[in-house]
């Protein structure tokens, strides 16, 4: 995702967003990350696709690190398959159903427990050393939402990471469940640097069924979902009644309810699907878990959690579309300082550098736009740089300052490779933000 990219090609102008309670949705539309196509359906523009690609790379790395195998399954499922676990009817009106030209009932799958279990059953027998077997995909899912809203948060088509694990016994399955949940903690709290903003709470298993499930939430100003915090025991719960807490007293008056957005869900399924679809080892049904992350809904979820105004869109550093933007005054575009700054930035920052070469716009306007792209570093080569540029000595000064550099932090590196430019720094809890 590194390299030098030019704004003239990469930045597509956004469109006016329809009225929405979601500030994140408005900013993603108006700043050119996504484009509404019809109610509940959205296109990812180059900026949005770049954020999604970075997020998918993180998921691939973390799940493959623990032995998960990536696959790809069809988005279309048959009634025959879904009937085996009795979910064709129980999924309700949100399942998008249709028929092919032979009148065979089909659906656009909202999840893939049946298909993945059938895959394992068909590939059996496995060797004992292959367990626990973990298979995952990152692909489109579909849900016929009655009221699509808040953009990618509640869309009819959405990108999801869904993983399914198969173990030879319930104890091994429990170990796998705990291990993958710790991977979730790493991704959300550490890699995306969301820390304590992430809330893990035990939840109902719903139409998936199973033994236990947990949801992962981010606090939000939207009335989309909720969790309760019990002031008596300090634990979160999903009880519909905000005046009860099952983990301590049944009528605690110290319950606080938070509005949230669900970003992940994990289930210990047991043998519900393996029994129904014949996925066995030595004649016994395999014990299963499944693990989901709403990839596309993470975009508005993190923007909603981190941004404080419509003029300052924020992403976690790990998935920001670029690590830095270099804004250059027109009269300096052919100056050696631009090449020196760009090449040095690429050495220290691996998440991509955007060179804002739209010199028909003022530096001030470009700074304003950069602050709405979620880019953590903004380097400006403009009036003060031009006044301080002593011809060829700039090249010598930059070369001298860069020589033998080791162990620099990123801020020190940027100041070194841009010794006479402007740099704006304003620390925030999760990352560094640069703004005028």
UniProtKB/TrEMBL annotation:
One Pfam family per UniProt: HGTP_anticodon
Organism from which the protein derives: Caenorhabditis japonica
One GO CC annotation: mitochondrion
Signal peptide: none
Enzyme class: ligase
Protein known as: proline--tRNA ligase
Keywords: Aminoacyl-tRNA synthetase, ATP-binding, Ligase, Nucleotide-binding, Protein biosynthesis
InterPro entries membership: aa-tRNA-synt_IIb (IPR002314), aa-tRNA-synth_II (IPR006195), aa-tRNA-synth_II/BPL/LPL (IPR045864), Anticodon-bd (IPR004154), Anticodon-bd_dom_sf (IPR036621), Pro-tRNA-ligase_IIa (IPR002316), Pro-tRNA_synthetase (IPR050062), ProRS_core_prok (IPR033730)
MF terms (GO), sorted A to Z: ATP binding; proline-tRNA ligase activity
PROSITE patterns: AA_TRNA_LIGASE_II
EC numbers for this chain: 6.1.1.15
Superkingdom classification of source: Eukaryota
An individual GO BP term: prolyl-tRNA aminoacylation
Aminoacyl-transfer RNA synthetases class-II family profile domain span: 40-316
Catalytic reaction list: tRNA(Pro) + L-proline + ATP = L-prolyl-tRNA(Pro) + AMP + diphosphate
């Amino acid at each position: 995702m590194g390299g030098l990219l030019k704004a003239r090609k990469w930045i597509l102008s956004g469109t006016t967003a329809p009225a929405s309670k979601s500030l994140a949705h408005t900013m993603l539309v108006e700043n050119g990350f996504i484009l509404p196509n019809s109610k509940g359906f959205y296109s990812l523009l180059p900026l949005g696709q770049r954020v999604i690609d970075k997020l998918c790379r993180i998921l691939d790395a973390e799940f493959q690190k623990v032995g998960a195998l990536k696959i790809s399954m069809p988005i279309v499922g048959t009634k025959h398959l879904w009937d085996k676990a009795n979910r064709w009817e129980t999924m309700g009106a949100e399942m998008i159903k249709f028929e092919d030209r032979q009148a065979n009932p089909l659906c656009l799958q909202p999840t893939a427990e049946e298909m993945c279990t059938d895959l394992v059953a068909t590939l059996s027998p496995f060797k004992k050393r292959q367990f626990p077997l973990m298979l995952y995909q990152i692909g489109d899912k579909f849900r016929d939402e009655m009221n699509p809203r808040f953009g990618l948060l509640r869309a009819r088509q959405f990108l999801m990471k869904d993983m399914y694990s198969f173990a030879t016994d319930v104890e091994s399955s429990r170990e796998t469940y705990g291990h993958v949940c710790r991977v979730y903690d790493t991704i959300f709290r550490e890699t995306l640097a969301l820390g304590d903003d992430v809330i893990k709470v035990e939840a109902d298993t719903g139409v998936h069924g199973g033994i236990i499930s947990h949801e992962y939430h981010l606090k939000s100003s939207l009335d989309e979902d909720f969790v309760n915090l019990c002031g008596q025991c300090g634990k979160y719960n999903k009880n519909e009644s905000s005046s009860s807490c099952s983990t301590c007293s049944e009528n605690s008056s110290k319950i606080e309810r938070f509005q949230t957005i669900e970003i992940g869900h994990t289930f210990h399924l047991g043998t519900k699907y393996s029994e129904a679809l014949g996925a066995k080892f030595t004649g016994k049904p395999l014990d299963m878990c499944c693990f989901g992350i709403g990839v596309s809904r993470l975009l508005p979820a993190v923007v909603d959690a981190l941004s404080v105004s419509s003029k300052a869109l924020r992403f976690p550093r790990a998935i920001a579309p670029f690590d830095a933007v270099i804004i250059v005054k027109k009269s300096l575009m052919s100056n050696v300082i631009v090449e020196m700054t760009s090449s040095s930035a690429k050495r220290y920052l691996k998440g991509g550098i955007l060179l804002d070469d739209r010199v028909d716009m003022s530096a001030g306007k470009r700074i304003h736009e950069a602050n709405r792209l979620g880019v953590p570093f903004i380097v400006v080569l403009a009036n003060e740089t031009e006044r301080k540029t002593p011809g060829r000595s700039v090249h010598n000064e930059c070369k001298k300052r860069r020589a033998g550099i080791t162990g620099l932090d990123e801020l020190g590196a940027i100041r070194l490779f841009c010794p006479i430019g402007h740099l704006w720094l304003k620390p925030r809890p999760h990352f560094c933000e640069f703004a005028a």
